[in-house]
Amino acid sequence: MLRRASLALLLFAFVALATGPAQPAPATPAVHRCCLPNGLTVLVQERHTAPVVTTMLWYKVGSRDELPGATGIAHFLEHLMFKGTRRLRKGDIDRITYQNGGANNAFTYTDYTAYQFSFPRDRWQVALEIEADRMRHTVFDPREFEAERRVVMEERRLQEDDPESRLYEQVNALTFVSHPYRNPVIGWMEDIRRLRIQQVKEFYDRFYVPANAILVITGDVKPAEAFRAARRAFAKLPRLPAPQRRAVVEPRQPAMRRLRLEIPANVPRVIALFHAPRRADPQFYAAEVLAAVLGEGKRSRLYQRLVERESLAADADAFYPAARDPGIFGVDFNLKAGADPDAAEAALWDELGRLTREPVSDRELQRAKNQLLADFVREQETASGLATLVGEAATIGGLRLLQNYAAAVGRVTAEEVRAAAARTLIRTGANVGVLVPQVHPTASTLGGKKAVWPAPAGRRVASAADGAPLLREQLTPTHRPRPAGGPAPRFAPLPVTVERLPNGLKLMLLENHALPSVTLAAQVRVGSREEPAAQAGLANFVARMLAEGASERTEAEISEALEFAGAQFSATAGRATTTITLKTLTSALPDLLPLYTDLLRRPAFPEDRLELERGRILTDIRAADEDPGTVAHQAFFALVYGSHPNGRPILGSEATVRGLRREDLARFHTEYFRPQHTTLVAVGDFQTQALLARLRALFGDWESREPSSSPPVPPPPRWQGVRTRRIERETVQTQIALGHLGIRRQDPDYFPLLVMDTILGEGVAGGFTARIPQQIRDVQGLAYVVGASITSSAGLEPGVFLAMMGTAPRNEQRAIAALLKEIRRIRQELVSETELREAVNYLVSSYVFEFQTNDQLASYLLGVDLYNLGINYRQRYPRLVRAVTRAEVLRAARAHLDPVNYALVVVGPPRPLKP
C-alpha cells in the first residue's frame, strides 16, 4: 500500500514552512471531471513539467470483494488481464508498450485494482484503446490460466519466505474476524491452488464494467484532448449495472488478541494493529496526524522512547493506510539484540497511554503537519505520482476529500489528536504479534528494515520507474503490434551552471520551478573500496553517523530542525562513492543550508550516538540475512569478487562492525571527505546566483588535502569452470544467482551491451518482452521475479553480469537450464531485426522518464560528472543507442557473456546442486 502521506493528498493550497504559519503555495492544477454515458468517470489533471502522460484505470474492486474460499481472485484476475483479448494476442500489451517507449504496471489492494500506462506525450492514446478492449473482451484461456497460477504461487512463496510479512499477515488475520480485510491481497495458498477459471471469469464479468471504473489521465495533456480520446475509446462500451459491493461490519473487539510466531529468523519483532476510521470519516485527519506524531522520523514518540531513551529497539514506526471501510492503525518495531520483548511492549503501552491522556505540544503538532504536507509536495513530482494520488482518493473516498485535505489537516488540534488516540489506541482493541526467532543463521549480507505493511499485490515487483512510460497510435480491429513511428525525443540543453571553487569543490546548479522544493546532493568519491578488509562496513558507518552530531549541534537539534521543516536527509555509502542528500521545501532552504554544510564537513561522531548506531547496523545485518534473495545476491558477489572490496557487504559483518571505533570513523572522514573529491549538485526552486553566493560562503574555506594513503585494491579474480555455492535454508522458494564479472561504465561496448540487456534479460516497460523473463516467467511459469543484466552494475570498477530468480525447489534445475539456454543463444546468433529495432526504440523513447523530478535530475548530473560523460550526454544518448547494430550486439555478447565460466549460488532447501 502507499505510505500515509501519499494516500489522499492532492488539491491543497498550503505548504507548511519550517517556522511560523503556513503560506500559500503555487496553485495545484485542477482535476477536470466528466462522466461518459456508459458510467465511466474520467478525471484529468494537467502537469506540463515533462513530456509524459500517465493513464490509470481504477476498478472499485479488491480483495475485500472476495468470498471465503476464493481469496486472491482479484489479484489473479489482474495477472490475467495482460494475457490477451479477442484482438490482442498474448504478449501484445507488453509488446505495444515496449515498442512505444512506455511502461505498464498493475496492482491489487483491498479496495481497488489499478492498471497503469505511461508514455511519451505523443504516444499515450493507445493506452486507452488497450484498456477499453480488455475491460470487456479479455480472453480466459485454460492453458494461460494454469501457467499464471504457477506464477502467482511463486509470488505467494516469495512472501512466505519473508518473516516480517508472515508476522504482519498473521496479526492482520487476527485483527478481523468477519471483514475480508483479514485476508492477504494475494490470497491464501490453498485458495490459489483451487481457484477455477469460471470463478475468475464471473468475477471479471461482474466488476469490470464502465460504471465501476475511474479513468485518471495526468501529465502533459490538455483536458479537452484527454476527454475526446476517452470518449473515442470507451464510448462504444455499453452501460452495465454497477455491482453492489457487499457491506460487512466488523464486530467490536471485546478484548486484546495476541499471537507468538516462532519461525526461522534473526530479528525479534513486535507489531500491534488497532481498528481505525475509514478514509471518508471526519476523524481520519486527526488519526493521520496521530500516526505522524507517533512514528514519523527520529523525533517521533515511538522512536524517542524505544530507540533513543530505552535502547530496546533498532527502529520504530506507525502507519495508517487509508481504506474504504474501517481499517487498521499499526505500530511496529524491530528489537535490538538481547532486548526484552516484554520491556519493549511495556514501554510501548506507556507511551500510547500518555497520548490518550495528554495533548501533544504545539511544536509536535506543527512538526507532524509540516511533515505530511512536505511529503505531499514530493509525491506530486511525476505524472504517475499524480495519477496514483487522484485515483486512490477518488476510488475510496472521493475528490472532495482531496480538496479538503490540507485545510482539514491544518485544523486538527492537539485535543483532537488526543481524542483520536483515546478512541484508537486501546488495549482491548489491540492485536499484538511477537516474532520470536527460532534460529539465527550466521551469513552477513546487505540489507535493511523493510516496512511491515504490504505493498499492493501486483503483476510487477515494483512500478516501472516513477513516471512510468506510455503509448502511440490507436489500435485497429485487426491490430498487430508495429514499431512506433515518429522522431526520437529531442532534449534541449540543460541550463546548468557549473563552477569549481579554488579548493576543488565542483558546484552544479539547475533551476526547476515546477514545485516549491529543492534537492541538494553531494557526491564524495569514497566508498567501501577504500576500507581495509578488517574494517568492512566503515564507509557505511561513517555515512550513517553524519546526522548524529555535527560541529556544535547535537543529534536532537539536527533531527528537530530537519523534521520540523518537513525535510529529508540521507547519507548512503556505495562501492566507490558516498552521496549526501537533502530534500526540502524552498521556504526552509535558507535555514537548512548551514546545517547541511555542517553534516557534510564537520560530523562529531559522538560516542553515545556511535554505540546506538552500531546497534542499529547490527540489527540491519541480521535482518538482511533473513531475506533469501539478499543472501543469494551477497554470496554471489563474494564468489565473483573474492578478496576484492566489492566482494564484501557494504554493511560489513557483525565482527568487523563490532570492532570499529570512533577514531576509525573520524580518521576515515578526515582522510577522504575533501572538496576536491566532491561534486555538489542543487536542483529545484531557487535563484542560481543567490544560491551560488551562499554555497561559496559556506564551502569556500573547506580545506583541500590529499589522503595520506589508500589500501591496495586487488584485481577481481578470473577463473575457469563453474564456481558453485549452496546455502541451505528451509524456505518454500529457491533463490538462484548466476553470472560472472562484468564491465566498467566506460567500456566501449557499453551501448551494444545496453541493447543486449534490453533484448535478453531486463523486463523493461514493466512487462516481459525480454527473452529471459518471457521464457521463464511468461511461457514456463517458473518464477515471479526474474531478470538479467550486465550494464546496470557497471561502475568505476567492473560490475557483474547477474541473472537472478526465485522458483519452486522442484524447478531449480529446469530454471538454471533455461537461464543458460538463453545466455548461449544470444551468443550464438544475431538478434532479429525486429528485436534490435524495438530495443533501440524503447531505450530512446523511454529516456524522457529519467528527467521528471529534482532527484532524477540531480542523479543525472552526478552520474555524468562521475563518469566524465559531459552535461550534454542526454542529447548524445539517442544517437549512441541508434548507432548499435546486430553485429555489435553479437560481438559484445560473445566478448562479455560466458556460459562456461561462471558463478552459481543457490539458496533454498537441501538438494544436490548440478550446474
What features would you describe in this structure?
This protein is of the alpha+beta class. The protein folds into 4 domains: 31-244, Cytochrome Bc1 Complex, Chain A, domain 1, CATH 3.30.830.10; 257-374 and 399-437, Metalloenzyme, LuxS/M16 peptidase-like (Cytochrome Bc1 Complex, Chain A, domain 1); 497-699, Metalloenzyme, LuxS/M16 peptidase-like (Cytochrome Bc1 Complex, Chain A, domain 1); 722-908, Metalloenzyme, LuxS/M16 peptidase-like (Cytochrome Bc1 Complex, Chain A, domain 1, 2-Layer Sandwich). It contains 30 helices and 27 strands. The strands form 6 sheets. It has a 7-stranded mixed beta sheet, sandwiched between helices. It has a 6-stranded mixed beta sheet with strand order 15-16-22-17-21-20, sandwiched between helices. The longest helix has 19 residues, at 142-160. The relative contact order is 0.13. Mean pLDDT is 90; it is low at 1-27, 440-455 and 459-486.
Question: How would you summarize what this structure contains?
Answer:
The chain is α+β, with helices and mostly antiparallel strands and 915 residues long.
